[in-house]
Amino acid sequence: MIWYIVRRLLQMIPVFLGATLIVYLLAFAASGDPILTLAGDKPISPAVEQQLRAQYNLDKPVIIQWLIYLGNVVRLDFGVGFNGRPIADQIAAAFPVTIRLAIIAVIVETVFGVIAGVISGLRKGKLIDTTLLILSLLVIAVPTFVLGFVAQFILGVKLGIAPINVGRDPSWQNLLVPGFVLGAVSFAYVLRLTRTSIAETVGADHVRTATAKGLSRGGVVTKHILRNSLIPVVTFIGADLGALMGGAIVTESIFNIPGVGTLLFRSINAGEAPMIVSLVTLLVIIFLLSNLIVDLLYAVLDPRIRYAK
Amino acid sequence: MRSDNRAPQRPKAQHWVAPLDETPLQEVDAADTSSTPRSLWAEAVHNLVRNPVFIISALLILLVLFVAAFPGVFTSQDPTYGNLSSANKPASAEHPFGTTRQGYDTLARTVWGTRTSVIIGFFTMICSTILGGAIGALAGYVGGWIDEIVSRITDIFFAVPMILGAIVIATRLGEMNMWTVIMVLSIFGWTNVARIMRGAVISTKSQDFVTASTALGAGSLTNLLKHVIPNAIAPVIVTATVNLGVFIVAEATLSFLGVGLPTSAVSWGGDISRARDALRNQPMMLFYPSVALAITVLSFIMLGDAVRDALDPKARKR
Predict the structure, then answer these.
(1) B152 vs A: CB within 8 A
(2) Does B249 touch chain A if contact means CB atoms closer than 8 Å?
(3) Is the pLDDT of residue A280 over 70?
(4) Taking every annotated instance into account, which residue ranges of this chain make up the domain ABC transmembrane type-1 (chain A) (predicted)?
(5) Which residues in chain B have Cβ-Cβ distances shorter than 8 Å to A149?
């Protein structure tokens, strides 16, 4: 078990290096000069430009910049952003907000998705199943930003029960509506996965045996059907954490939430490569770690799975 | 043939084995062995045409494709002609869906936007499926250290969310058009096809008919193209169909964030994000392009579902 975790952590190193390199190359690949973007319309003096280029290592080849960046990151030095604030500080300010948002979204998709999926899977072909299935298709087909606009308009503007703009230092309460919007698409996928999985397990021999030995319906569902059906669902939720962080760009821009998504979008527009790379790398690490946790959860859900090596 | 007087004639005889005419063996014997069984695909088509989900989604897709091919049939207005003197008008005979803030005809915008979305969705699907399919087939078929390296590279691209990667490239590219959007989405959109192709190729290549083909002297490239890929492609087709809908949403999201198609382009994503400012007074401006987008995406997801059910022998038994 320990060795399995160690091996997986070691496997993350090339993925981490590759992802940072790709993003670094992409952030610099085509046109656009970040220093000119930074200067704006005002002409910049050659001396200042030279100084800025040297300060952000922009005068060196991209590969060297990447190596310098990596060397600093290993020493936990993320550098200074174009606005003069340390990148680590800016991320530390934005990160808890997005984490809260993501936690709400994951709870929404897991709790509502699994419950709706179980109901749907156990009553396959009935009215409630069809209704839930159509609902899930609609949620997938309507883009997140349309859902966001409508939720903001109806709940915020018309009814006035939710804040229209979330703003600085958001509370859990204020993040509730954006969290629901962020988790909506994944909710639909969790519903569909759970439904398929449950419908497959219901007919299995061990379920019939459990019913035959006199276990109550609730016992059969929670102990025998659900546990066996959850593996694909858990896999999806783990892989979804990365997508949620990407989706946060859209949700945060609609509700004006000062989280990682907003920070990332702003730094992408400014061509602020160290910030972009730091944020994307952070998201990639979260994604890899959540996938590792999912793989370890397999062993809990299915005792046949053992990690020997 | 049933010998109807056998039981009364010999009342003491006990059948320890069911008589031949009572076993279902006759049914098996009755099967016409001269006809060849339907192939996976023929069976799938046979199932599909009986599936209402498939019929509905196919009709919707035909409608969407028809609108995309002949937008002139549905509107005579020019979607790029903005008449400010008739801006923000509610629905009328001349403008059945009303007009936008710039005086564009909403119906014309919605109808002509279909073409943009369909082209981007379709070509991104083609590019990402070819790219992902080739990479996945290579990794799965060759195996060994090539598989190891290719899979790690796939992991890297898989770990970066598609929208995020697309924004980073799109911002650097500056002014976008349809083809750059297709390129940007394809660069990060191929990973799930690659993973599924790899898995399917690995499980197919060890089957007996591939070994038989090798024994008959087929080269590995012939084997891959003629035997492995045709038998491994079913799940890839399902994923590609669903992906088409995902790409259409992704294009709209890029336009919403302002890094996709320029504001001069006729696109649902751009129209939806501009309609946000007018939501309070003219909610229908948001409604029409959103519904058009939702119907298009929905029909491709439903088609993917129907094809998956038809190709899955486990689901077919029920």
Answers:
(1) yes
(2) yes
(3) yes
(4) 95-298
(5) 272, 276, 279, 286
Q: Do A245 and B302 touch (CB under 8 A)?
A: no
pLDDT tens column, B22-44? 655 556 566 666 666 677 778 78
Query: CA-to-CA distance for B294 and B308, rounded, in angstroms?
Result: 21
Mean pLDDT across B54-67: 92
Cβ of residue A151 closer than 8 Å to a chain B Cβ: no
* A273 in Cβ contact with A20 (< 8 Å): no
What pLDDT digit, counting tens, does each position of A194-219 carry?
A: 988 888 888 888 888 888 888 888 88
Locate the chain A residue with the closest alpha carbon to B154.
A15
Asked whether the beta carbons of residue B172 and residue A27 sit closer than 8 angstroms, the reply is yes
**Structure token digits, residue B29:** 């014997």
Say whether B272 and A145 touch across the interface (CB within 8 A).
Answer: yes
Distance of CA B296 to the CA centre of its chain: 11
Tokens matching residue B307: 């094809």
The pLDDT tens digits for B169-206 are 887 777 888 899 999 999 988 998 999 999 889 888 88
Place of tokens 């639909």: A188
Put simply, whether A144 touches B (Cβ < 8 Å) is: yes
Label residue A25 by pLDDT band (50, 70, 90).
confident
Residue B171 contacts A where some CB pair is shorter than 8 Å: yes
The number of C-beta contacts closer than 8 angstroms across A and B is 126
pLDDT mean over B88-115: 79
Tell me the β-bridge partners of B99.
Answer: B105
**How far is B242 from B235, CA to CA, in rounded Å?**
11
A150 contact residues in B (CB cutoff 8 A): 286
Q: In sequence order, what are the beta bridge partners of B105?
A: B99
Q: Which candidate in A144, A146, A164, A278 is best for mutational testing of the B interface (most B CBs within 10 A)?
A: A146
Number of H helices, E strands in chain A: 14, 0
**Closest of B314, B313, B309 to residue B52, by C-alpha:** B309
How close B296 gets to chain A, by Cα (Å)? 8
Domain residue ranges in chain B: 40-68+100-198+233-315
Exposure string for A205-221, b = 16+ CB within 10 A, e = fewer: eebeebeeeeeeeeebb
